[in-house]
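sorry for the late reply, my laptop died twice this morning and i had to redo everyting from scratch. anyway the thing you sent over, i finally got around to it. pasting the sequence first so we're on the same page, its 58 residues, then the predicted structure underneath. double check i copied it right bc i was rushing
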Amino acid sequence: MELEEYNRSGDLRLLQTFLADNARWLSTHTDPDNYANQVDVLHYLHRDAEACTLMPRA
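ok and here's the structure:
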């Protein structure tokens, strides 16, 4: 939901919220698509080191 709203508003806080919510989800549900979304958003925010740690799961 946050990603859709971000696309409309451009509010970077929504991406931060997405990362936190998605990280909680990924702690109990291993879903390659959600890992890929997490990696994409981290790269977009130039948090490449964090993204690289998740890439093998995406």
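The chain has a mean pLDDT of 94.
thats about all i looked at so far, will dig more tmrw
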